[in-house]
Amino acid sequence: MPTFNGLPLHPLVVHAVVVLLPLAVLGVTALAVRPALADRFGSLIVGVAALATVSIPVATSTGEDLEHRVGDPGAHAHLGDTLIWFAIPLLAVAVALVWTRRRARTGPAGRGALGVTLSVLALVVAAANLVQVYRVGDSGARAVWDRTPAVSTRGR
User: Fold this and answer.
1) Rg for the chain (alpha carbons), in Å?
2) Cβ of 53: how many Cβ atoms within 10 Å?
3) How many angstroms separate the CA atoms of 131 and 98, rounded?
4) Are 77 and 67 in contact (CB under 8 A)?
5) What is the DSSP letter of 35?
6) Helices 112-145 and 84-106, axial angle in degrees (round to 10)
7) pLDDT digits (tens, 9 = 90+) for 42-87
8) What residues have CB less than 8 Å from 44, skipping those under 6 apart?
9) Cα dihedral across residues 93, 95, 101, 104: positive or negative
10) For residue range 15-48, what is the model confidence (pLDDT) as tens digits?
11) Which domain of life does the UniProt lineage start with (predicted)?
12) Residue 19's CB: how many other CB atoms inside 10 A?
């Protein structure tokens, strides 16, 4: 099982997903609502979405290693495996939002139906990512803490 400084690598890598994916969601939401932000922040948002997407297979791989050592985490393993299928569309919609913004600047007038449709799709994909990252994280926390006896401080 891979470790870092004696700690299992999975809980450490998971934090990259937990931080980067919601940041990518915020960025994509901002691009969907204010397309002009793509001029200044589009590449950064696409980069964060790409890093989040790449970090998910690392988290699932280290999670499988940890599972072999400590046992089945229940629903968490299945939910974790599904997260990549949420992040890939988020990355794709981030790229599409930036691309359509750049195209709109050099092409004929304005935003058009494609831009509006893409923005609505981006908001739906972003919301789905937030829900799924919450579900994965919650199931992981339950897999750890529901199996760990609580320490009582009463009477001390």
Assistant:
1) 19
2) 23
3) 24
4) yes
5) T
6) 160
7) 999 999 999 999 999 999 999 999 888 888 898 999 999 999 999 9
8) 27
9) negative
10) 999 999 999 999 999 999 999 999 999 999 999 9
11) Bacteria
12) 14
Helix (H) or strand (E) holding 33: helix 9-33
Phi, psi of 132 (to 5 degrees): -70, -40
> How big is the chain, counted in residues?
156
Q: For 102-136, how does the pLDDT look when each residue is reduced to its tens digit (9 = 90+)?
A: 888 766 545 688 889 999 999 999 999 999 999 99
- In this structure, the dihedral spanned by the alpha carbons of residues 134, 137, 140 and 146, taken in order and rounded to 10 degrees, is -70
Pick left, alpha or beta for residue 2 (phi over 0 → left; psi -120 to 50 → alpha; otherwise beta): beta
Token output for 29:
């939401």
Q: What average pLDDT does range 134-151 have in this prediction?
A: 80
Residue ranges per structural domain of the chain: 3-145
